Amino acid sequence: MNKPRIGIVCLVRKTFDFETAFKLYQERTKLIEEDKTVDWFNYNEMVIDPSDAEKASLYLLDNRVDAVILVSATFHLGHLALTINNLVRKPLLLWGFDELPYDGGKIRLNSVCGVNLNASNLYKGGSDNYIVHVGNELDEDFITAIKMKVAIENAKVGLIGYRADGFFNVGVDELHLYKELGTLITHYELNDLFSGEVDDAKFEKEKENVLKTFDTSKLNEFQINQVAKLCVLATNFVKKEGLDVLAIRCWPEFAKNYGVSPCAMMSILQSRGILLACEGDIEAALSMVLVRAAGEATPFMADLSQVNYKENFALLWHDGVAPCNLWNGICKRSLETYFAGGKGVTADFVLKSGDMSILRIDTARGKTRVFYVEGKAVDMNKELSGTYAKVIFDYHIKDIIDTVVYTGVAHHVIMGYTKYQTAIKYLARIKNWEIIDIDSKKY
Q1: For position 1, what pLDDT does the model report?
Q2: CA-CA distance, 268 to 327, in Å (whole number)?
Q3: What is residue 7's DSSP assignment?
Q4: Disulfide: which of 69, 138, 155, 206 matches 228 by Cβ 3.0-4.6 Å?
């Protein structure tokens, strides 16, 4: 994953305690730069007048930053943020420090007023690409939002085959995606995957892993071998093509032409951090990229499959593709053949409990929207085939279902065991995406 490149600039005015303010700035940026998941570009000079802002802008441009943190260390001239915004044109965090103790009755920083000035100028000047933060600690949600932005704009996305038959709602306008996300999709045929070479040693290692990871008592030798072979083929394919995420048309042709469906393979490889989306769903694949960038190592695609309005829960289920490392450790983790006329070979287990969230980028009627909600996966018995979690959301499940169906959200969501609500709101603002709001109940 590409590391974001973030610039930091200190804005001050000499009519305030600017020397103390700059010292605070240096202390705080030194701590910030300890985070090695970001490439930091600290313009370590005070920006006081418009010519300083121009010099800072050239520094940011030379270093090709993805975002800029504008620190109003004191109140300052309104020219400064406008100049940097005009020249650099990247998302901005307008950061104001908490006020220092008064010195003889005089305000020392007036930092928040500087943030207010910048926000007002930018808004009235037609720019909405800013986030505001006040406090002595960096807003980590802004950093997460920029990580997500950089990840999705630079993701190499592959599609094997096409969307699943009849799933019109997961089809995409590729040039709209390019316009909104900067994403280009590389197309492949199913045979491009099937026809790869399989090294004997790698095959034996994968077969050993399949037998160690799952109860395979319901599979025959051919099915076990095909799963192991497919693990090698898919790993090689993703690596060779340099893909960040791959969407696969996993039915109906896959099982017919290869002998088993890819579900078990997807469960295994996703546990290793390879992002794979079912049923040719490109926007689900892109949502996976976002969830990974937000901190979830092994996100996966699920259906809002079964709901119980009376007991207020949902079952997030899919045909046995959830990463096998998310198994609850209690039930039997097995491979089954109920799907695709006995050729399914899906993973079967209950997912672990814990805090979770679901996300989907979803385009409809020419608008890019984002749907996000948090909840908790709770314990349940293994009662059916596939991979699934029983979830109690922060909203009543009827409100969630009503929101999904009356705003046309597709039937796949990306689940992960991490929460990033503020970060996704920041990203939606920066990208000018519509947030599908459960509270609005517009339906």
Answers
A1: 67
A2: 11
A3: E
A4: 206
